[in-house]
Batch of 2 targets.
Target 1
Amino acid sequence: MNSAKTIFFASLFAVIALVAVLFFRGRPTDGDGMRQSELVLHCAAGLRVPVEEIVQRYQADYGITVRPHYAGSGELASQLEIAGGDLYLPADVSYIELTREKGLVQEAIPAAYLTAGLIVPQGNPKGIRSLTDLTNDQVRVSLANPSAAIGKFTKKVLSDAGVWDAAEANATVFKFTVNDVAQDVATGAADVAVVWDAVAGLFDNVEFIHVPEFDQRRKTATVGVLASSDQPTAALRFARYLTAANRGLENFAKHGFQVVDGDTWLLHPEITFFSGSMLRPAIEQQLELFEKREGVTVVPAYEGCGTLVSMMQAGAEPDAYFSCDLKFLDQVQDRFEEGTVVSRNDMILVVVKGNPKNIHKLEDLTRPGLKVGVAHPEKSALGALTVDLLEGRGLQDPLTASGNVEILASKGDELANQMQIGALDVAIVYRSNALSSEQILAKCEMISIENDPQAVQPYAVHRNSSHKELARRLETFLTDAAGKEQFLKYGFYWELNK
């Protein structure tokens, strides 16, 4: 290559390098070096005031631009497939559920409650007190278009009350957002409108009137992460900020919104997760994916559930507990929210390949000369269930008297490992213990136990956790379609949403 070409290519590479440096310098980071472009947020117009403040606060804290697009909740929902973006914040969670069914929304986090009611001019000159007053042909009514969350909800409640047709006939105008109908009353263009309580609080010259038909059916503004987002970790981070008790929810509360019990804000939160060891093969892969997607740390403790319960009774407070069996959640239920049953797992006999000892049923375990492994009844759910099983068959005392029990392991996978190295002739384990290792399957055989004894696995969130919503999303992630596939792979029976 001659010197002219050398100089040309060297200059070209220098220019490319400079452009790359300038490009990446121009893109903000999230505080830990992760590059982000701006986030696009589709937000219900009735939430605009607090959301504007939250957006500005987030940008000031982290230098990340969030570009909101405000409109009615239904109008936004209809545009999501075309518009794309990162986040969707409607005024009613039903829109989140609808867009989730269409595959447009993935994670969702509640933010604030909205109660509808009547807004009238200061002093209430028309004496309006109930939904029936909307049927008075001397009353000018402003209603929101049903494409807005408030409009859809208004039509539903008024229809149920039998006053929709008359109220609709009195409507002087239909507006596209809740802010617009409130403005009609504030400016004297209407005598009454149906709005959210927090929106009414934004106007000085109006009154808000509670009515039972609306008070009994409050709505929840919930932010969803869009499937179209190409930066889901960044979107989730802003969603956590917006719904955090010590960040975004402060702005919602400041403007009269009733807020949820939100998580504590941390840029990189860490949660502790207690799990029965029998669940580990089914959830470990999903747990790692969850950490990457959310940009958080999950610290797992995989042990026998008896050991985990003892740790909790001694003062440990995990954010979430995935128990091997219901009875081991029952022992600490006062510390946790109600558990969700996810799966079942049956107990089996594992014997050496070829079954040289000719073991086929529980009664065979009492035969002389066998080396039998069972789990410790106080350290593991498997051990406690094994005692129940043997006592129910009248075999606990005979097995103890036989002297055949070689190992009282603290968890089932320890028994499976002892079978793998040939230290035992037979062990009582969970099916998932046997299916979790190719080496065990190569050296051992599984024998079903008559009447199929099973353990039931519930997931629960700790009442004192400062990251309840994050722990709930972990449950959802562990049990989504990909998570369910992992459970089935390891011999679990699926119970969730049956």
Target 2
Amino acid sequence: MTYPGSGLGLLPDQYIDISDRLIKNEEDGTKSLTDPITGLGNLRRMKLKTDKLIEQRDEDPAPFSIGMFDIDRFRPINDLFGRKAGDEILSQVALRISAALPENAMLARISGDMFGMVLPTCFFEKDALKIGELLRDVFAAPFDLGERIVRVSATFGFCQYPFAGATFDELFDKCESALYQARKRGAASIQVYTHEMAQAVRQRTQIEQALRKAVAAQEIEAWFQPVVNLHTKEVLGFECLARWTDAELGEVSPAVFIPLAEQAGFIDALTKQLFAKAIACARHWPDTVFLSFNLSSVQLVDPTTALAVLLMLEKMEFDPRRIKIEITETAMMSDPQTAERIINDLRAVGIRVLLDDFGTGQSSLGRLRDFSFDKVKIDRSFIAALDEDEQAGHIVRAIVNMCDALGLGVIAEGIETAEQARKLVELGCSAGQGYYFGRPAPADATIALFEKAAGARDPKCCSAIAGCCGD
């Protein structure tokens, strides 16, 4: 006997059991598409919605948009008020934004404080900007946490189908790129993926591919800029600078390829190659001339960095006391504890550590207190302002006096005129570098300078090295 309507030849109890399981599976499927905190769809549901829309628009190729936003400075809310308060903010954001979006739009919680949107009737860049501006205004009202209120903002990124991509993954990547660019401009910014951004992405990909080949072929060159005694113009040392000229791309700025190497994950290989080339060159200089070398933010979060530096020096039989390592405050801020250990390990063997770009960080005075540095490099922005801004002179003098009190040496960077050099001497700064004293030069040219000056009365004197110094 079959149970009526089943068509499966099952007994009543068996039919009821299967029905319960089907209902449970449907509920589980709904849960797998739903964010438990906000009740919104999750990333998977956003993908399904987008895929379905792409399928529909394949026949009718009308554009649509997807967007994403994250809440600015959301983590401090969790840290200060607890996770429950953070979840309450997320729930209120979900309600507000859902009410503000067009009727046929979909809002999803992607992860953490990041939300995604599918906007079927948002056809053009200008439409996305309007929606972004509307949603930004939604965040203007404070959020109620019971006994307290909290104000937060959000940063937005958008892209359009089919311009930005023909699949959800492609669209999502472009939307992330737009959000990344918006974050770079600051909190509560809005960015739509544009033709200019597309061109920048293509160019970045081209540069990254060429850079990988250049690193593999050891084509990144070490160039050197002199650091001089401002009183005597004696060459004290050279800072190593990375230079790269590609056969197709031409000369690529280190401001472009160094961050790219960091992001792509091969800055360590590049740094080791450059350091080896720099030491090979410095072995031809007088023993009293130092080599200054920059470490990136990636090296300052790697506990093995100090050991790698020491092993390289030992392998190439180079005196650690002739090495100065330059680091920036920004690079230290990712992992201050690891950075401090690296600095201490380097200084323990006689390597001197310089704080670069001093004056541009958010808490430089605190860094001087918390870390053990040997010298400070005054940022070029203060030096450039010496010619026209009296306040810049007061700042430089204050930095020099402070460093004297702390027992720190000072180097001014970016000196381009004789007048700047003269003023720096008056302000108490005794060492500097910049185009006035010499532009960066390749290794062979640097070695040739000392060879040419070998017969001079003082072979270290910068004035004896033709073309190295200003008047």
